[in-house]
Amino acid sequence: MSRVQAADKSSPEAFMLADWRVEPSLNRLLRGDHTVQVEPKLMDVLSFLAKNAGEVVSKDDITNAVWTDQFITDSVVTRAIAALRRALEDDAHNPRYIETISKRGYRLIATVVTQPVVDEVDSRAESPVPSPALAESPAPRTASSASPFVVGQWVRGEHFYGRAAQISEILDGNRNWLWLLGTRRIGKTSLLKQLEYLTASSPESGYFPIFWDLQGAESSDELHEDFAEALLDTEERLGRLGISVSDVAADDLFTSLGRLRRRLRAKNICLLLLCDEVEELIQLKAKDPSLLRKLRRAMQSREGVRSVLASSVRLWALADQKEDTSPFLHGFTPPVYLDPLADDEARALIRQTQLGPDGRQALAASNAFDDRAVEEIRRRCGNHPYLMQLVSERCLDLSDLDEAFEEVATDSMVSFFFSVDFELLSETEQRILYAVAERSAASSKTIQLDLSFDSPSLVGSLNRLEHLGFVRRNQERRFFLVNDFFRRWLQNLPLTRPLSGAAKASHPRSPYDG
């Protein structure tokens, strides 16, 4: 039986939603001296979510509660949720208030505390009531808490480090169709969000970014809906250009893309399409091959659009030539590999050099990151941004670098993303990593003799593993595992472990790895 509660038809009470005071009877949100007026229907939606805080409510639940006896499409609910997120200054991809549950609906994740209704003067003067921590799970640590390190979430702005070469290639290069290829937690989403941040805050860049998250899109309808929501997220920026979302929005994403590209082009602005979790297109191709052909044509319009895809190696499946037309990845290859940070970029991240003076002073006062510690973190993490932030945060918590290393080495989440990355590699690449893990370093000749590989196959596989950040060459041109944590995880696997079905199937060989 569903636990979703019906909407309250009486005048609802005011309540605290984290640091916002919500006053339904007045259709307004208050936070300190900041007041936001919302439309009555939006307030009805928010009140319904609050009444069912912590529960997943479907679009049908919201429709039945708020638009009683009215026929509306799902896009109306999508627009309402997007508008509420803007009012609450929430982010659909890193939510603090309203979470999207793929294929199911939405969930209010911020704590709700009922408050008495007071008069307008008192309500404006009232200090926000501190909200208790969520009962379901502790909130992830972010850069705004005691630690300056951001673990497990995308970053941008002052919390984003490195990637100057990739940013320059994407924004200043001659290619209009690019594919960012990298392992899990290497920072693909963060790079897309940084590109969005840089171009949105600099109109002179000549780009209008739209971040499109494809995660969970299992059908063409859902792909259209996801783009519609991404378009709504740009409503305020479009308005500053004199373009209304209603001018370009359509139920069909290709119609929307075409309209948006033409409106922007008339203003000498290029659409920057930033597409995340593009692996979802693999199953969409199996269901509707024509959808991908249309999508490729839209993304590769000759003028007015620059398309950036971000994914893991799984997307090589779309490089197959099984039809008369060119494969989806034609034009997006060779990929722009996202490997570990450069040494100076890694040092800057650990030292958090982009923090304000107070933050840098507090970090320096901890005495946790002297030159020796910075180099040790960098070396053992192989300049991997997620691992460096995780180790650094644990070091601040424990005040002991060795304990921090041990905690990270035994962290189940770290083991999980190592496992996922390893399973996505080909059988040849897995065997090479096993061989290299047995030595401190190994030449390509040694690997070839050990595994009886032909030279072209070995060269291509080693090249790809180096691009993906698994191995690197020392001064003697011998290969070694970049990441001590990955080495330890790999060495703990049984040497007779059978290769996975994913590895046996393998991704198509890239012609760009040799």
CATH topology name of the largest domain, in short, is Rossmann fold
Q: What is the arithmetic mean of pLDDT?
A: 84
Instruction: Tell me what portion of residues adopts beta-strand conformation.
Output: 5-15%
The CATH class of the largest domain: Alpha Beta
Helical amount: 40-55%
User: If you compute it from the alpha carbons, what radius of gyration comes out, rounded to the nearest whole angstrom?
Assistant: 25 Å
Strand order of the largest sheet: 4-3-2-1-8
Number of domains: 4
The N- and C-terminal alpha carbons lie at a distance of 58 Å
Largest sheet: 5 strands, antiparallel
CATH superfamily of the largest domain: P-loop containing nucleotide triphosphate hydrolases
Number of helices: 23
Question: What is the quaternary state of this protein?
Answer: single chain
Going by CATH, the architecture of the largest domain would be 3-Layer(aba) Sandwich
User: What is the SS-derived class?
Assistant: alpha/beta
Could you list the spans in which at least 5 consecutive residues all have pLDDT below 50?
117-145, 496-508
Report the count of strand segments: 15
